[in-house]
Write a structure and sequence with these properties.
The protein is α/β, with parallel strands linked by helices. It is built from nine helices and eight strands.
Length: 209
């Protein structure tokens, strides 16, 4: 697999502008990375690039209603998103109510004809929580599980990626800022890397290849 296509080059901060999105797209196209943008910029990003386009749903806390997440997913799909990264309700996971998580993921998966990744904030969970929610996501026909939003005080950890990869393909995200960290996540089992430092990671990769 081409390394660049494993990178979701990401801009998701609340202060980001259309100019930031345009710059992100230019950087992604230089190396062939995927583009990950907030929902309001999906249609704009789609007008700028043919690279794989990713957006987020229920972001960053996952506490919106299932119906809202389904609406967001459908609208993002209509605007041109090629993949959806949805935030699970972490409170349900920590309450050991993974059945509710599974039902919600199933509804989002059914609502769009594109891959769905489920963000579980693994650094907030116990091993048993991670295993339970990953199995629920697998049963719900999700395409990936994703470690983190990067907005909850933690991010991807090697041991969590290894564990999660036993169930579904993993997107490691949160705190990955250089090539060494990205490669260690891939070695641990990640098939995709989410990073706002995608451009710097690819420059390092090019220099060492």
């Amino acid at each position: 697999m081409d390394f660049a296509t494993q990178i979701d080059h990401t801009v998701l901060g609340p202060e980001k502008t259309a100019s930031d999105i345009s710059n992100l797209v230019d950087q992604a196209e230089e190396y062939g990375m995927n583009v990950c943008v907030p929902p309001r910029y999906v249609e704009y990003a789609d007008s700028l690039t043919d690279n794989r386009l990713v957006t987020v749903v229920g972001f960053p806390n996952g506490t919106s209603k299932t119906s809202s997440k389904v609406f967001e997913a459908r609208e993002a799909f209509d605007d041109g998103a090629d993949e959806i990264d949805m935030v699970a309700h972490i409170g349900d996971i920590k309450s050991e109510d993974v059945t509710s998580v599974q039902v919600e993921v199933e509804e989002v998966v059914r609502s769009v004809n594109v891959p769905v990744k489920v963000i579980i904030e693994s650094h907030l969970l116990s091993e048993s929580d991670i295993r339970a929610v990953c199995q629920a996501c697998k049963d719900a026909n999700a395409d990936f599980v994703k470690t983190s939003t990067g907005f909850s005080g933690g991010g991807a950890e090697i041991q969590d990626v290894k564990m999660m990869s036993e169930y579904l393909p993993v997107k490691a995200s949160g705190g990955i800022s250089n090539l060494d960290e990205a490669l260690r996540m891939i070695e641990a089992g990640a098939e995709r890397i989410g990073a706002s430092s995608g451009y710097e990671i690819m420059k390092e990769y090019e220099e060492t290849s």
